[in-house]
Design brief:
This protein is an alpha+beta fold. The radius of gyration is 25 Å and the shape is elongated.
Length: about 475
């Protein structure tokens, strides 16, 4: 239930949420909490009441999907915003811009504070990319355009309070030949973290990326990492890697300062494997500094250590996550009124990832998330009968292929977050959230029916069109 002023300004939201958790607890309490928080992220909501209930049913155990806990609230709320916008005669994009979250906003005191936010810029960029003003309500019958927005975690904190174990631990060893070994337990599962984390180490040390080797398979060396989940790796493993590299750099600078006859280490800098005096340019190689350090320390190599554990989450308002990513998406669809089939023909997504350490990786995540979210919105559904799954294979569980992909304009929106390594935030789970509401809103623009449950199958579209024709 949402209340707005005549100009589209949101006044209050009441959100009642019932979660089917299956026969076991699993992530029940966590998911219930996430849903209540994530609904508040994209837009300013001055008055908010949330009631979440996690219920047990005779279904299998549930688990976390990409965008865990945030997809369903976003679908309901962003779909409702479009209906409200039509009722009061306000453009849906203008309504979102009017209510967009801004840096410094406090969503939940001491729990969810916004340290950086590119929400407004994201909405503006996708609207420009998709020519929103030229298309909304002006396309031929059966064609429509819709918008959805989102915010998401950059690493969950709440599961691990009151533990001495770090969220991530990193070691950086600089060898005598100038190469670097970076030790971590951050798991590369295809999300590209090996590259990102190696880039962070190389940038902080001032060496070439090709000189950094990553070792992430030995629990006997480093012991701290809580897992590859909750879009946490760049934030948490990245901060630990940066701290370890900075520790190693301090040792290298100490050795280099003696070689160069300098006494003030702050006059030094490092780039492309060279440590040099800023004023004169005189320098030595990282290899020479590493060997000098070993000679002065009985052969012990330069070894930097870093850990990441939030310092004071309550004081900083980061009890749930160190910071949050934001973004917006606009989708154009074509609806066949004879069959009910919905075809996505064009899209643009703008994502605030903080500082884009690897822009190509961010774009890859944006494109991959579109593929996954299309299935969530239009075809994928686990069906049950008396507690048993009746479509347990990919014959009946319909997934999109590469041939089904629409055009995707991936727009990287950069902000500078004080909590992230070099200002970086997540570019993982949050990207799947806006697709379902954007498609639903585009369908409404195309044929005037609002589909309120997922997936949006041809049968549901036809049924809604038939009911509309009877009115």
């Amino acid at each position: 239930k949402t209340g707005v002023k005549k100009d589209g300004k949101i006044v209050a939201v009441e959100f009642n949420n019932i979660l089917d958790g299956g026969a076991h607890h699993s992530y029940g309490v966590t998911t219930t909490m996430i849903a209540g928080i994530c609904l508040t992220l994209p837009y300013r909501i001055p008055n908010y009441r949330y009631t979440g209930r996690h219920v047990y049913t005779n279904k299998p155990v549930t688990g976390a999907m990409r965008g865990h806990g945030a997809n369903q609230p976003a679908f309901a709320f962003d779909s409702q915003l479009d209906l409200l916008a039509e009722e009061i005669g306000v453009d849906p994009v203008d309504m979102r811009l009017k209510n967009a979250t801004q840096p410094g906003d406090v969503k939940i005191p001491n729990v969810c504070h916004i340290s950086s936010c590119g929400m407004q810029e994201s909405i503006e960029k996708v609207a420009q990319s998709m020519k929103w003003k030229d298309k909304r309500g002006k396309l031929p019958e059966g064609r429509g355009i819709g918008v959805g927005s989102y915010g998401f975690f950059s690493g969950a904190l709440y599961n691990y309070f009151n533990t001495s174990r770090p969220y991530n631990e990193a070691w950086v060893r600089v060898n005598g030949d100038g190469t670097v070994h970076y030790f971590t337990l951050a798991a590369e599962i295809g999300q590209g973290c090996d590259t990102i984390l190696s880039q962070i180490v190389a940038e902080e040390l001032g060496v070439r990326l090709e000189d950094v080797s990553i070792i992430s398979s030995d629990t006997g060396i480093v012991t701290g990492d809580t897992g590859a989940f909750s879009s946490r790796t760049t934030m948490m493993a990245g901060n630990a890697a940066k701290e370890a590299a900075a520790d190693a750099k301090r040792q290298l600078f100490g050795a280099a300062a003696k070689l160069l006859g300098r006494k003030i280490q702050d006059e030094l800098d490092a780039k492309d494997g060279q440590i040099y005096v800023k004023r004169t340019g005189k320098g030595v190689s990282v290899s020479e500094a590493a060997l000098a350090y070993q000679s002065a320390n009985s052969g012990a190599p330069v070894l930097g250590r870093g850990v990441y554990t939030p310092a004071d989450p309550i004081a900083e308002g980061t009890v749930v996550s160190p910071t949050w990513s934001f973004g917006s998406q606009i989708i154009e669809v074509e609806v066949d009124k004879e069959t009910g089939e919905v075809r996505v023909i064009d899209s643009a997504t703008a994502h605030d990832c903080g500082r884009a350490i690897n822009p190509m990786s961010v774009e890859g995540q944006l494109e991959g998330s579109m593929h996954m979210a299309l299935g969530y919105a239009l075809s994928e559904e686990v069906k049950f009968e008396k507690g048993k799954v009746v479509n347990p294979s990919f014959v009946d569980y319909k997934m999109f292929s590469a041939l089904d992909m629409p055009k995707v304009d991936s727009i990287v929106v950069e902000t500078d977050d004080p909590h992230g390594p070099f200002g970086a935030k997540e570019s993982g789970e949050g990207l799947t959230i806006p697709t379902a509401p954007a498609i639903a809103n585009a369908i409404y623009d195309a044929v005037g029916v609002s589909i309120k449950d997922l997936p949006i199958t041809p049968e549901k579209v036809l049924k809604a069109l038939q009911e509309k024709s009877k009115k």
